[in-house]
Write a structure and sequence with these properties.
The complex is a heterodimer of chains A (102) and B (650). Chain A is mainly alpha-helical. Chain A is built from 3 helices and no strands. Classes of the chains: A mainly alpha (102), B mainly alpha (650).
Chain lengths: 102, 650
């Protein structure tokens, strides 16, 4: 059996990658992908802890499914917004999306 | 007829009302209405007098005007107003209405073409109403009300020619001077009310008889009441208004300032005799004021140049006689003189009015002369009046004046008799002087003389009508008529003084002396008037300047008031204004201090808060970079830091 620490480490690496990408990238689609990455690393965490702490009950699994649903919804909404922005503008560089800044 | 007596004042009152409001719409401005009302009142008064004289009828009506709730320990009090008719009132009614009627008729001629004809008649009727109301009043309060109305009417009529400043000042002077007396009178009335609890003469007299009022209070009240009479009847020292009041139209002078209104003071003393008689000190005051006024005014009449001024001072002097008579206890004599004087003085005034009218308002006697030829009726009637005033038998003045002198002669103060007798001589002198200067001798102003003409019948008619009583009314109280008047109007018991040949002889002799001296100076020119004036020297100046009374009053009261006003103004400006300004300055200083605190402390605090906020905002603004990722980084770092703290703290 794969030890818990491996899974957690993998999850932390994935989260760090996602975080880095979300904070540093300029392209909105890439940021969205990085966010997905962070969510999935959390999912991994949840599934692993669920397996190790309560093997008989699917508590963490349910939570992971919830997160996947939210992530799907978020991706749909986010992509829709970016699509609209892309239609109105030439790019979807987040630094240039500053219409609401005073 | 006595029951109808209330109609007597009412008729002229209604006429005054109608004239005042609708006079302009009536034919001839409604003078016929005034005359008609007074004529009716006159007939009624005659009926009332006949009733009272022959049937001994007396009557009174009254109504409760106001009731006051009883104060603790006192009976409830009420104010009743009413009329009463007795012999005194009945005689006075006839006197007032007779003279008023004559004046009303005379004025048709005298005031013809006057700009304020309607106002004149309205006020004349109003005056008659007020005077008749005064006569009939059965209590002091109602009497006082009518008394003031009379004063008001007098004010309006003296000021009839209000375009002329002298008329304006005269009306004001008359009003204010009489007001001085009225204040005293009102205090007297209140004093009596305090003791008696009623204003009615009947109650007051009854209370005095029961001795409710202590003697000093009674004397004080009587003297205060007399103060009102002094003002109204132009007695010393409040006589100054009457000569000035001659600024009014001459018929007004006849009605108000000779026959009726000034008689109101005498009438008051007679009406309230039950208050005076039991107060010997007050009686002394009345007698002495009267006597002194009689001689004082008579001397002033000697040197007047204006025909109306002579008559004015003569009136003051004769009123003094009446007061003296009343003060000496000669109730009947005093009132009888009032009656006769009303007729002959009204006659004299109206005759002088006729002369003035004929000469186009020239009043200076030195510009007249010889007018008897031009104005026979006026002249003849004047002669009757003059003889009555001088006390020549058998004219009216002789009988009444003789009675007063007789009373003085028999009284405890013979000094008053000699004063009265001396005044009688002076009276004969000045009236003869006036008569000669106006009607006899050479015309001194030919131009005026040429244009003089006898007055129309509407003016001479009243003169003739007044000449009859002026000549004959004296017999009413003569032995020939068995002293009928004495048995009609009396106080206490009717009595006649035993006639004295000395008094009568001296009176007639004195009158003749006065007449002869005047004739000697002015007619026969034994000594020229100028020489007499030179011989009199400063005395003449003193008389000419009316004993400097006007100057004294001007200096004392007018200047005094002005000085007092100045003092008050100074006090106002310096002390009161100073105080106010000091308070203002203090308040201003306080507010300036408050402003400083406001601006620097409170505003400072507010501004500090504001600028602090601005500064804080400026600092915090830097955090708002506008990059979502920067925020996300901050969030992440914060969460990490928070977690570390949480873990370490946990």
């Amino acid at each position: 059996m794969i030890p818990l620490s491996w899974v957690v480490t993998t999850s932390a690496i994935l989260f760090g990658l996602g975080l880095y990408g979300a904070l540093s990238l300029r392209n909105a689609v890439r940021i969205l992908m990085c966010i997905e990455l962070m969510l999935n690393s959390v999912n991994l965490n949840l599934v692993a802890f669920s397996r190790y702490l309560h093997p008989e009950q699917p508590r963490g699994l349910v939570l992971a499914i919830f997160i996947m649903t939210v992530a799907a919804a978020e991706a749909a909404v986010g992509l829709a917004i970016f699509l609209t922005i892309a239609r109105n503008r030439t790019d979807i560089d987040v630094d240039n999306i500053r219409l609401l800044k005073g | 007829m006595v029951q109808l007596a209330w109609l007597v004042p009412l008729l002229p009152g209604l006429s005054a009302l109608v004239l005042a409001f609708w006079g302009k719409r009536l034919a001839r401005d409604g003078d016929w209405l005034g005359i008609g009302a007074v004529a009716l009142a006159w007939l009624l008064s005659l009926g009332v007098l006949a009733d009272v004289a022959w049937r001994g009828a007396e009557g009174s009506v009254g109504l409760e005007w106001a009731r006051f709730a009883a104060a603790p320990g006192q009976a409830a009090r009420s104010l009743a107003l009413g009329f009463q008719v007795d012999a005194l009132a009945a005689v006075m009614l006839v006197v007032v209405t007779s003279v008023s009627l004559a004046v009303h008729v005379f004025s048709v001629g005298y005031m013809e073409g006057d700009a304020r004809y309607k106002r004149y008649y309205a006020m004349l009727s109003f005056f008659t109403f007020a005077m008749l109301g005064l006569v009939l009043a059965d209590n002091l309060l109602l009497l006082f009300i009518f008394w003031e109305l009379v004063g008001l009417a007098s004010y309006a009529l003296i000021g009839h020619y209000y375009e002329r400043p002298d008329a304006r000042y005269a009306s004001m002077k008359a009003f204010l001077t009489t007001r001085v007396g009225d204040v005293a009178m009102f205090v007297g009335i209140l004093l009596l009310y305090r003791h008696v609890g009623s204003f009615a003469f009947r109650d007051i007299f009854a209370a005095i008889e029961q001795g409710v009022i202590p003697a000093p209070s009674l004397a004080l009240a009587a003297v205060l009441l007399f103060g009102g009479a002094v003002g109204k009847s132009a007695q010393l020292p409040l006589h100054v208004w009457l000569p000035d009041a001659m600024a009014g139209p001459t018929p007004v002078s006849a009605l108000i300032h000779a026959a009726t209104m000034v008689a109101a003071g005498v009438y008051l003393v007679a009406r309230a005799y039950g208050i005076f008689a039991p107060a010997p000190q007050a009686m002394q005051v009345v007698a002495w004021i009267g006597g002194l006024t009689a001689i004082f005014a008579a001397t002033l009449a000697l040197v007047r140049e204006d025909i109306k001024q002579v008559l004015a001072y003569s009136t003051v002097s004769q009123l003094g006689y009446m007061m003296m008579g009343l003060g000496l206890g000669a109730y009947t004599a005093g009132f009888f003189h009032l009656t006769t004087h009303a007729f002959f003085k009204a006659l004299l005034f109206l005759a002088s009015g006729s002369v003035i009218h004929a000469l186009h308002h020239v009043q200076d006697m030195h510009r007249m002369g010889g007018l008897l030829r031009k104005m026979p009726v006026t002249g003849a009637t004047w002669l009757v009046g003059a003889a009555a005033l001088a006390g020549i038998p058998p004219f009216a003045g002789f009988w009444s004046k003789d009675e007063i002198l007789l009373a003085a002669y028999r009284s405890a103060t013979p000094a008053l008799y000699w004063i009265g007798a001396a005044a009688a001589v002076l009276t004969a002198f000045y009236v003869t002087r006036a008569t000669w200067l106006v009607f006899f001798g050479r015309p001194r102003d030919p131009h005026l003389f040429e244009h003089a003409h006898e007055s129309p019948i509407v003016m001479t008619g009243p003169l003739v009508a007044l000449a009859v009583p002026a000549a004959l009314i004296g017999f009413w109280n003569s032995p020939l008529a068995d002293h009928a008047f004495s048995h009609l109007v009396f106080f206490g018991e009717a009595h006649e003084l035993e006639p004295s040949l000395t008094v009568t002889g001296l009176a007639v002799g004195g009158a003749l002396v006065g007449v002869l001296v005047a004739l000697a100076i002015y007619a026969w020119r034994v000594v020229s008037p100028a020489a007499v004036i030179r011989a009199a020297g400063p005395l003449y100046t003193l008389l000419k300047r009316k004993y400097y009374v006007d100057e004294l009053y001007h200096w004392l009261f007018v200047q005094g008031t002005v000085a007092l006003a100045r003092l008050c103004a100074w006090f106002d400006q310096v002390v009161v204004d100073g105080l106010v300004n000091a308070v203002a300055r203090f308040t201003q200083g306080l507010s300036e201090g408050s402003q400083l605190v406001d601006q620097h402390v409170i505003d400072g605090a507010v501004n500090l808060a504001a600028s602090g906020t601005v500064a804080a905002g400026n600092q915090l603004r830097r955090a708002q970079v506008g990059y979502v990722q920067a925020y996300a980084l901050t969030l992440f770092v914060s969460v990490v830091v928070g977690l570390i703290i949480f873990t370490m703290g946990g």
